[in-house]
Design a protein that fits this description.
CATH architecture of the largest domain: 2-Layer Sandwich
Domain Histidine kinase: 269-480
Strand content: 15-25%
Enzyme class: transferase
Order of helices and strands: HHEEEEHEEEHHHHHEHHEEHEEHHEE
Oligomer: single chain
CATH topology of the largest domain: Heat Shock Protein 90
Number of domains: 2
Structural class: alpha+beta
Subcellular location: Cell inner membrane
Number of helices: 13
GO molecular function: phosphorelay sensor kinase activity
Distance between the termini: 44 Å
Keywords: Kinase, Membrane, Phosphoprotein, Transferase, Transmembrane, Transmembrane helix
């Protein structure tokens, strides 16, 4: 089975960038070019409207006197039509007048023409004259050659008023071919600058893609050398600070992993998890050596049996605990009763509670269920109970509560005892970080880190707070 070739990320990013820039340049240039012709023609029409109205005002006096064809106004139109401007602007010159001007009377008959070719003809049926004489905006576009789209001529007319009545019209005509060279020049300029800017933007994109590719190669080389145990300097990045952040994270990870092997962490985790049931069995066995009523004796015997089973389960689950950090999602999820689990935790800790003369309270709302892995959640709660027993004051109180809070299930344990120092609150879930107990001995510092990992697998949250007269640890879990 064939596989796709491995294309470097920089090339893939540049290819995507090339497509986006190319499509943008194409559609922008196409839109601009398509809008050039109608925009120029609209501008031309607006100029013709102004010119026609100006001439209509100038023609009013001569029109009211009678024969406009012999008037000074008609002679001026003829002189205008034969002028040769000899002007030069942009890349083109202007040697002839492109405008044609003709005047009609109120019946639509041509009485003056700057080109002197249609005087006396009836123009009353042409839209520019027909509409204008009726008080509406008169304009038309007529093709001189039906096979040549550039042969169209734009005509715009304005009414000649006298005492509020329309007595004639003035039409200004301009061939669209006269403005076509300027449209073509604008198109070429748009295409030139669009292509130039596209090339420059693509060059900039290629440089950025190359920098990204080289930065990734540096990080990849750095990670590979770290994996082989080589001493290598951390790469630096002056432009892409995100890569610098990632480089710092890799450096921090290397420092944390140096001198620590997985087997050592595994053994420490196992030792920490076996400590609690062994302590419970030891406490129960010491109490059993004293005279006790049969009912209490059976209770502590049962504690020993339960804790032995707990150790057996721990041994059976060692491989699962070893995979905890790498576990992508929970396995063996079931609906669990919070009250039932908490009762198990309290009952299993009866021996240590009795030895320390600690009162344990349980206040769980009935009917609260959570969806999760029974073994992992029990181990998390056992860890919290062990911590509470380590730090609770003599003759103090440990209080378990479970209730719903803001669409979440909150399971909390309170131990009456000293507060956690402020400097340590944010570090309690760090691996191997531990505070000394009453006897000055520190734990392995894995318990709360273990609880936090279990909460992450359950999409939950671990919160530790100093409260009045003690410390409160709360687990927030989603409702099923």
């Amino acid at each position: 089975m064939s596989r796709w070739p491995k294309i470097p990320l920089g090339i893939r990013l540049f290819f995507l960038y090339f497509i986006l820039v190319g499509m943008t340049a194409y559609f922008v240039s196409k839109t601009v070019i398509q809008e050039l012709k109608p925009t120029v023609r609209q501008t031309t029409e607006e100029t013709l409207v102004d010119m026609a109205n100006l001439l209509a005002v100038l023609a009013e006096e001569e029109m009211t006197k009678g024969d406009l064809s012999q008037s000074r106004f008609a002679k001026l139109l003829t002189a205008y039509g034969i002028r040769e401007p000899e002007s030069r602007f942009w890349e083109y010159g202007k040697k002839v007048i492109n405008h044609r001007i003709y005047v009609t009377d109120k019946n639509g008959m041509v009485v003056a023409d700057s080109w002197q070719q249609d005087i006396g003809k009836d123009y009353s049926q042409w839209n520019d004259v027909y509409l204008t004489l009726r008080g509406r905006y008169g304009a038309r576009s007529t093709a001189l050659d039906p096979n040549d789209p550039l042969s169209t001529v734009m005509h715009v007319a304005a009414p000649i008023y006298h005492e509020g009545e329309i007595i004639g019209s003035v039409t200004v005509a301009k061939a669209n071919r006269s403005v076509q060279p300027f449209i073509d020049l604008s198109k070429r300029n748009v295409l030139f600058w669009m292509m130039l800017m596209t090339v420059l933007v693509l060059i900039a994109g290629a440089l950025i893609a190359w920098r990204i590719h080289s930065a990734l190669n540096k990080l990849e080389d750095y990670a590979e050398k770290m994996g082989r145990g080589e001493k290598v300097a951390k790469p630096t990045f002056r432009i892409f600070y995100e890569y610098g952040t990632l480089s710092d994270a890799l450096e921090k990870m290397r420092n944390q992993l140096d001198g620590k092997k997985y087997v050592e962490e595994y053994v420490q985790t196992l030792t920490h998890e076996l400590k609690s049931p062994i302590s419970a069995i030891k406490g129960a066995s010491e109490i059993l050596q004293m005279p006790l009523p049969e009912e209490q004796r059976q209770r502590f015997v049962g504690n020993i049996e339960r804790e032995s089973e707990r150790m057996q389960r721990l041994i059976d689950k060692l491989l699962e605990l070893a995979r905890l950090e790498k576990m992508p999602q929970l396995e063996h999820v079931e609906l669990l009763s919070v009250e039932e689990i908490l009762e198990t935790i309290v009952e299993s800790s009866a021996a240590r509670l009795s030895m320390k003369h600690v009162k344990c309270e349980l206040n769980a709302v009935e009917g609260i269920n959570i969806l999760g892995n029974r073994f992992l959640l029990q181990q998390a709660l056992f860890n919290l109970m062990d911590n509470a027993l380590d730090f609770v004051s003599e003759n103090g109180v440990i209080s378990w509560k479970a209730h719903t809070e803001d669409s979440q299930i909150a399971i909390s344990v309170f131990d009456q005892g000293p507060h956690i120092p402020d400097y340590a609150l944010e570090r309690l879930t760090e691996r191997f970080y531990s505070l000394p107990r009453e006897n000055g001995v520190k734990s392995t510092g894995l318990g709360l880190n273990f609880v936090e990992q279990i909460m992450q697998l359950h999409d939950g949250q671990l919160k530790i707070d100093n409260v009045e007269n003690g410390v409160k640890v709360t687990l927030y879990l989603r409702t099923p």
